[in-house]
């Protein structure tokens, strides 16, 4: 299965990328997935140009195709002013509005304080609901105080949320119905169509030749 991780961290290294990697690793522990990471920071200029030209450049087009063809998605953004970053929103704005329909998505975010954790529910979840994605119940938020200070590299609370969300996404990936091929209309030969249009012989009830 193909799992794409979209991360909108602006610095390198960033806590946003760190959280994205932790979530992807947790899913990979539960299922055999091919993970691809999309760093939006490296695509910022291409995304801006797409709004001007209406057409994504080669590199951005590849990442859009990867997201569209993925079996599942992890989307992680830093929180600015109580919502997702502009770069994060801009990337999903350039996607076709059917690209995420029915696709399992795990949403996550990072921020300076826990006060911004509700941005996951009032900003990110409605965004992906609008795009008709299937968002897992557990959203993961990591504040500055969540990194370190516990008995392991992550505090107990964050580690539990990561595990729970990864388990929910894995369940959706494993039980997702396979995509159906679009139905193809049967092609009726021209002679058969022509025969159906020939008038009946009033006497015999057979087609007039």
From TrEMBL:
Keywords: Flavoprotein, FMN, Oxidoreductase. Residues 1-147 form the NADPH-dependent FMN reductase-like domain. It comes from the Bacteria. Pfam families: FMN_red. The keyword Transmembrane does not apply. SUPFAM superfamilies: Flavoproteins (SSF52218). This is FMN reductase. InterPro entries: CE1759_FMN_reduct (IPR023932), Flavoprotein-like_sf (IPR029039), FMN_Rdtase-like_dom (IPR005025), NAD(P)H-dep_FMN_reductase (IPR051814). GO terms for molecular function: oxidoreductase activity.
